[in-house]
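Teaching assistant's notes for section 4

Start the section by putting this record on the projector. Ask students to predict, before seeing the second block, whether Major facilitator superfamily (MFS) profile domain-containing protein will look compact or extended. Collect guesses on the board.
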Amino acid sequence: MMITFKFLTSLIFLIDDLTFLLYCEYEFKMTQSEAGMLFCGTALCLFTYGLFISGFIVDKLGIKISLNIGLGLYALGKFILIFADSRTQLYLVMLTVMPLGISIIFPSLVLAVKRLCKENARPQAFSTFYAAMVLGAVLGGPIVDWIRHDYKQVSFTYTHTNEETGKEEEREQDFSAWRMICFVGFVLNIIMIVTLCFYDPRVEKRFEDPNIDHDKIKQLTYCGIFRELVSDPKFWKFLLFSFVIVGPKMVFSLLFFMLPKIILQDYGEDAPFGLYIAIAPILIIIFILILQPVQTNYDP
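Reveal the predicted structure now:
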């Protein structure tokens, strides 16, 4: 189940990265710099929520409830983006519910893989986990192209009662391809939430580490967890390492974020930019297959 969730979340996140700049530009008439600043603000909120809020939620509430909260927040954000018609709504969603949902989903899925297998099986489990992530990234681009090609403008007819005349009138609501992409993300999130209802947390007990005092963990408070975290030198080393890694990654993410717009400018509005960008995760799979035999001969 968690491998499938990783595949679907990877697909959704890649679709979001590919289309966010274009969504902001076409739906809200934002400039590239304005959309880029919003993207950076979302990333900063994601880091902040992950550091101060999400870890505590995951530790105290467990995998199932945490994932329900994360997926629910993300689905709420996608639903609002389908109908959002002002920049205020866009900023509100992209700086609150969306990054908070993502910051809960990521660690919950990683923890789920750890808790649902024995220690000797974890390397293989995490390999499968990240393979699902790459596969989701491969398929995300073509799905974007498919929606852009077949659903450029979608209209829904509904009945509305005119308050002045008291008569029922038929009205049409138009949705662009960018909003339909948000709708696809919303539907996938709902599917995961419904599927999660069948997850039994008692399964985790079969794989529990007997050396861990789970009762003691449940008694920890937010302040206690935070105090223990900041007093550990390993945390600060990891935080410094994260900053060093995240800096170049953010530059790459911004370039990746701008690629669809660059491709559309050079090759026209119908250019299949999703297919072009899908080449990157395909190359990752190829390099893994090539390097895996070599890595077995060397220590980490």
